[in-house]
Design a protein that fits this description.
The structure is a single chain. α10 links the parallel β8 and β9 (291-293). The two termini are 28 Å apart. α4 packs across α5 (128-140) and α9 (231-244) runs parallel beside α10. Strands 3-1-2-4-5-6-7-8-9 form a nine-stranded mixed β-sheet, with helices on one face. It has helices at 3-18, 62-65, 88-91, 101-113, 128-140, 157-163, 179-186, 191-206, 231-244, 274-287, and strands at 49-57, 70-75, 97-99, 119-122, 147-151, 169-173, 220-225, 249-253, 291-293. By secondary structure, the chain is α/β, with parallel strands linked by helices. It has a single domain, classed as TIM Barrel (Alpha-Beta Barrel), CATH 3.20.20.70. The model has no long low-confidence stretch (mean pLDDT 93). 35% of the residues lie in helices and 15% in strands.
Length: 313
């Protein structure tokens, strides 16, 4: 898609999605509140964009961070609300600063000036209309970075279908495959259905683009965080990926720590142990999945609890 076509597409998508703010239906929660009047739904956000931090992130997957870092913007609020979230300070405690759209444009352009590999939008869905408006302006002012959509996987297929043409790479979670687990830890028993529908759709759209030349960003990276005591959940997810999205790159993370409310939940109040990690590593190898498996006990300082607040570029 050339620049002129992309700008027109973004304008059209913005016009369509901005109407959803009047009775918010951007995510599966379908709160139906008027965010233009600053009514707050499940994500805790109203009309204005709220950002916690933006910086060159070197802790993402290798092709995302690259050598220069991923130009990452962490938006406050979240439609999911995991009890163990490492980003809880801004995803659930709502820390951050409200900004105008012109400030978001400046942040995007400054990340490019710092030679970011890409523009990495983290948990952006609840701010999609506002982001699209800023993105259009940024493109008109010279932004040329590939767009990475960094999502929890809790997405409505109709929203994903709408924005898919303008997104270069999807960095998308597949957290749960069992409804009970999703309900217990993210208050979202329907999560598996939404995640599978989203991943199946994206894979169908991007199939054939997954065999990449050196240095290119994969069109889909499926992330999964291994939860302690839930190895069977991870195994089922890996088998599903092998069967349904075999060419997609995977990113299996072992960095779990009992952050936030997880400290009070017996089943997940501990890190992953070596036996659990080894079982998953062996399955990944047996299934011959392509991608990345985080080392056992990775650097904890890369977790969201250590990100600096409002570190705007």
């Amino acid at each position: 898609m050339n620049l002129k076509t992309k700008i027109k597409a973004i304008e059209k998508i913005y016009q369509k999605l901005s109407k959803k703010l009047e009775s918010c239906a951007l995510c599966p929660r379908n709160c139906q509140i008027n965010r233009l009047n600053n009514e707050l739904g499940y994500c805790g956000q109203g009309k204005k964009i709220k950002i916690y931090s933006s910086f060159l992130h070197f802790g993402e997957e290798p092709p995302i961070s690259g050598k220069r870092g991923s130009g990452t913007i962490f938006f406050s609020g979240c439609s999911l609300g995991c009890v163990y979230c490492q980003n809880y300070k801004f995803s659930q405690l709502n820390n951050g600063r409200m900004i105008e759209e012109h400030e978001l444009v400046k942040i995007m352009l400054n990340l490019e000036k710092k030679e970011a590999q890409n523009l990495n939008l983290v948990t952006p869905t609840h701010f999609l209309p506002q982001i699209l408006k800023a993105l259009k302006t940024a493109l008109e002012k010279g932004l040329r970075l590939p767009i990475v959509y960094n999502s929890s996987g809790y997405e409505k297929k109709e929203i994903v279908e709408t924005i898919e043409p303008i997104i270069d790479s999807w960095l998308i979670d597949f957290k749960y495959i069992n409804s009970e687990t999703a309900k217990n830890y993210s208050n979202s028993p329907q999560y598996p259905r939404f995640a599978k529908n989203t991943l199946s759709y994206l894979y169908k759209q991007k199939k054939g683009q997954n065999r990449l030349n050196r240095g290119q960003i994969p069109p889909i990276i499926i992330r999964h965080l291994i939860l302690p005591g839930h190895i069977d959940e991870t195994k089922k997810i890996l088998v599903w990926i092998k069967k349904n999205t075999p060419e997609a790159r995977i990113s299996i993370m072992s960095q779990y720590q009992p952050y936030f409310k997880a400290k009070k939940i017996a089943h997940i109040n501990r890190p992953l142990n070596l036996k659990e990690y080894t079982q998953i590593k062996e399955l990944v190898e047996r299934l011959e999945l392509k991608g990345w498996l985080q080392e056992y006990k990775p650097q904890e300082n890369l977790a969201g609890v250590h990100f600096k607040k409002q570190n705007y570029t």
